[in-house]
Structures
1.
Amino acid sequence: MSKKIEVCLTPALIDLYDIEDSIVVVIDILRATSSITYGIENGAEAIIPVANVEDCLKYADKGYLLAAERNGEVVNGYDFGNSPFSYTKEKVGGKTIVLTTTNGTKALHLANKRAYQVVIGAFLNLDSLCDYLQSQNKNVLLLCAGWKDQFNLEDTLFAGAVVNKLRKNFEHFDDSSVAAEDLYLLAKDDLRKYLHKSSHSNRLAELNIEDDVVFCLQLNTCSAIPVLEGERLVKLK
């Protein structure tokens, strides 16, 4: 089988792709998939992504941690949002977290409707993710969560990094993959400097969470690959 990689630049385009036999990598670098990866790395038992803030409340009596973010900020009344610094071993070890975010959890739900498998990608687990994708005899769709169904730079740069690492192992690439890889090659020597151009980076800067941005751009600090099993994200065995 000749394997292909495609990049879906926004969840609004996912219906254009045949993903029934594909591993879909959901990407929301700032910050949902980075925080999910870090949380699973740090021993979270599971992370349950839900679409709406109200959906979190359905789990309130189960003893789970409830995490809700909208427009970059923690929703009032919830344990935390999607800052990676909330997903330390001390806070999430052995715990189940119910999470809703502006972009990432929406992308997860869209992928889960049709994909063969859904996994989580971040710069934090880039190498382990690529090793896994290379080992599977499956097509890959890199799904960028974007910003409210629009294109964004940081997710596309990560998609480009994956394409760049896997180029020798896959035979077919779409134009979105080519463009994403070209952007990554432009930016890779200083991702943070390049992302100063991005709208979401500027939004987060206004919230005074530059430390989060820098954290999410670290390479290969985690080996865990979160995988969606039913409604729960758990560590890929």
2.
Amino acid sequence: MTAAATTPKGERRRAALVEAAAELLAEGGFDAVRHRAVAERAGLPLASTTYYFDSLEELVTAAVEHHGQTELENGRRQLDDLTTRNRGVQATVELVLDMLLGPQSGDPEADAEAVLLRYERLVATGRRPYLRPLMRTLSQQLNELLTEIFARSGTPVAKDELDRLVALVDGAVVNALIAVDPAPRAAAGRMLRTALAESVH
């Protein structure tokens, strides 16, 4: 980060670039995050991307971190709402799916496309070694939040069980995507509800 990024104006510009890059990442994957595209989305000069970031990798890393932390913050807010209102299994399942697949928009086709993009992005992350330390950190934070969600919902799970539930969701989603199922979230929801029902009984 350059010294200019530590001034109020610099911080605002850098934040705008990071937010723009995170939006592009969510919409089109890593290939969508390019200096020119980020600058245009942020409404800033092209040179600003190289002024505030030493490399495209640094910009991508900041975008991934911003996107991940935003989702975690949204999840924590939803968890607070869940524990004060509805603690039923369905509410728990929906919150877990929000954390693993992203929130629903109300448009089934758009939601299915968003899930596909999400999994493409996750797979592509593995081809970028520079992201591995950040992804480990985000994954740990996500697992901690999921553990808290299950605990506050009255169905506490151990680490091994959490890993199994996440794997079930991932498997259901991938199978649905392979079968060109228009509702991968619904498939994952059915699998998760069944698994939770079995763990209760």
3.
Amino acid sequence: MVPAAGRGERLGPGAPKALRELGGAPLLVHAVRALARSRAVGLVVVAAPPQGVAEVVSLLDSHGLDGKDVRVVAGGATRQESVRLGLAAIPEQTEIVLVHDAARPLVPVEVVDAVVNAVRGGARAVVPAVPLADTVKRVAPGEPGRPEPVLDTPDRSTLRAVQTPQGFRRELLAEVHAKALAEAASGGGPAVTDDAGLVEWYGDQVVVVPGHEEAFKVTRPLDLVLAEAVLARRRASDGF
């Protein structure tokens, strides 16, 4: 599943982030292709902007994604809502669900396969992740534009930068989203940024498998420049 209904304001003005071009094709197309390269993936569901479903269908059709079952549904106002709507479009007999950021267009197929294999091996929730290269400081947020006091320096060896696709047993993912929806209806609910965070919030275990440095998220203009360079190198070396 690829939630792609957001605008991605940090990348600057223009089209929604998932539809920004990279090497002649939108980020979304690259992300769907990345999942489709795995033989373990039989269906890709894209949660598109509610007013842009027809546009996304046409876009995917025009970029030669034949050979895989790709379906487009209307997403929601939040990532959490888009994942829930996308999950409803996946056949109930599907036992493993991957959730992948449209803004991670260059994830290698070996990362996708590693996540799937870990869930098949018994894990209920799996995330790919990489060690941090930089020292991290925890700070006390202050006034905008003012220096922030450092609270402490976490042990970098215990920290990981999490990527996608994240993999789940289907019943677990459905359960945590149903709980979050029920709490939101009563004015509560967890403040998390990914599906693994929901699983953690409700008390189940998430495990980590090795990610890859090329599975970075395209968030800012400089990330797009880096993605262009990676894609150009791949095309020059192996006809990617």
4.
Amino acid sequence: MPVNALYRDDFYLSTCEAVVTAVHEDGGIELDQTCFYATSGGQPGDTGEFERADGSKIALGQTKHGPSKDVIIHVPLENEPRPVVGETLVLHVDWPRRYRLMRMHTACHLLSVVCSYPITGAAVGEEESRVDFDMIETIDKDAVTAKLMELVEQNHPVTLQWITDEELVANPDIVKSKNVRPPMGLGRVSLVCIGENSSIDSQPCGGTHVSETQEVGRIHIAKIEKKGKENRRFRIRFGTPGDEA
């Protein structure tokens, strides 16, 4: 039975109740529903803990997809206790970590607005994220930072819109990434829309994001690296140059 991935409709949901539907030989846990984001599209999966009825905890080190996107496997840390099928658990996402990832992922979308080149790769991290662009132009990192912070401070709304897989196939130009496949296969695809009526940006993405750009906070381009003749890697960090995040 497909899991009900609650985070797809509510990025701010950090706790919920769920029933164990399967426990794998390697300890991986499947649930009827979850607020834990599964690794996908360059964003790491959630960590956190499961609370049992007796108050004891099961610490989670990874959340990932199974053979398909409608299977989500929660992987406990080594030597953690195993629940049993049918057991009810209370899920607690490591919220400070998730929120940093949400801010970073939204910052990556803003960077794709400032640098309107095809994306060849991306990875979202707690301290630093990277976005690779198919470009040969030289660009000043401080100028990019200034444009990013302008979008952040304008406090544009960030909303979600759903379209069908068929609508995405019929409109391939909305996909900015050259190499990362949009989150298809569930019958519907989420578009992350920035600005009123998507005035700033709209692109398919299954990641988690903040609700307005001001939440991203202060960010900067720490480095722009040349990765091949037609590839530039932008590294985004929190704070200002020289700051600790």
